[in-house]
Amino acid sequence: MRQERALRTRRLILEAAASVFDEFGYEGATIGEVVARAGVTRGAVYFHFASKRDLAQGVVDEQFAQDGVPERACKLQEFVDTGMVIAHLMPRDPLLSAGARLSLGQDVFEDLGGGAIPGWIGRLEALLVAAGERGELLPHVVPADTAWLVTAAWAGVQIQSQRLTGRADLEQRVSSLFRHLMPSVAVPGVLGSLRMGPDRGAQVMAEVAAAREVKPVDEGVAAA
């Protein structure tokens, strides 16, 4: 019970910190504001995070601790789903939004080692390597180069969408990005089967939510 309480407190602090970093940026954020929004003591914050930098790193790292995209037989569909799910969640999830601001902000980029960017590049590269092993990639595709390029393009689309529409069109724009890029990545037989519509992220999240609801029932049946 004590461990569960500690985990809940840590999550509460991270969510409060995310809202503060997203609103004020790294330089403008204060531990005092995090304490006020989380409704915890300053000591509780410092118990979990030694400094503001440590807290910012926690916000960045948290996005990789969340439930991932379901594994697909087609790794390029999983590749697209990863980008579309983040596009769907970013306007709705302060942790993702703050992680993007911290990762792309020049005031903290070096301090946080590139923020979430190296992690996303690595995740996409791994999917592309797996896609290559399944014969889904065109011969010229180099997974490391493509992962770097797609991550950079996605980040640029996110910045442009945020500035022009407050991310209201982010899913549409990321869908357009994939529809432009994937013909130069996927073999024709795979390309024709890829689902890249603007609603793809919402569809995948609905699938994840349905799986969470079914799992306890299945476990109960198995136990019976």
Task: Outline the secondary-structure elements.
Elements: H1 2-28, H2 31-38, H3 42-48, H4 52-62, H5 75-89, H6 94-104, H7 117-133, H8 143-165, H9 170-181, H10 188-191, H11 200-223
Walk me through what this model shows:
The chain is an all-alpha fold and 224 residues long. The protein is built from eleven helices and no strands. Helix 8 packs antiparallel against helix 9.
Terminal CA distance: 27 Å
Number of helices, counting only DSSP H or I runs of 4 residues or more: 11
Radius of gyration: 19 Å
Please tell me what the overall shape is.
elongated
Could you tell me the mean pLDDT?
Answer: 88
**In what range is the share of β-strand residues?**
under 5%
How many strand segments? 0
Q: Fraction of residues in helices?
A: over 70%
Largest sheet: none
Taken in chain order, the helices and strands follow as HHHHHHHHHHH
**Which residues form runs of ≥5 with pLDDT under 50?**
217-224
User: Structural class of the helices, strands and pairings?
Assistant: mainly alpha
Concise summary:
This protein is mostly helical and 224 residues long. It is built from 11 helices and no strands.
List its traits:
224 residues, mainly alpha, 11 helices, 71% helix, 0% strand, elongated
